Amino acid sequence: MTRHARAECRASRLADTFLNAFNAKDAAAWADTLHFPHVRLASGTVTVYPDEASFVAAMDLERFASATGWSYSTWDELRVIQTSPEKVHVTTLFSRHRADGSVIESFDSLYVIEKIEGRWGVRACSRFAP
User: Fold this and answer.
1) 15 — phi, psi (to 5°)?
2) pTM of the predicted structure, to 2 decimals
3) What is the CATH number for 88?
4) Is the pLDDT of residue 50 over 80?
5) Which of 41, 61, 60 is nearest to 124 (CA)?
6) 50 contacts: CB under 8 Å, gap ≥ 6
7) What is the domain range of residue 24?
8) What distances in angstroms separate CA 90 from CA 18, 31, 61, 93, 125, one per listed residue?
9) What is the pLDDT of residues 67-103, one digit of tens each?
């Protein structure tokens, strides 16, 4: 396995951990999959979370679920498009689902996943989702 293949494997595993924490509505566990400062581009807005505490304080996943009917999300497609030993760019197609499994909507996104001080985390994401 090459160094780049290892990076791709780590990034893919991290993406699954990221989504599992999100689906568990566990903002602290979700924050553990990120690097800070963390940057999000969505809904025409750039949001920078300087640290884990600011991210967790801003995430009310129960309210999000209640307001949208969201129960869980799935990766429909996850594709590594660029790699280095310490950074991986991943494009995804993900879907938001209701509790009955029906799809609310699907969105494309891009994730920048980096290895910093020996730990992999999502540094930035750009989503077409609101």
Assistant:
1) -60, -40
2) 0.91
3) 3.10.450.50
4) yes
5) 41
6) 36, 37
7) 3-127
8) 13, 18, 24, 10, 9
9) 999 999 999 999 999 999 999 999 999 999 999 999 9
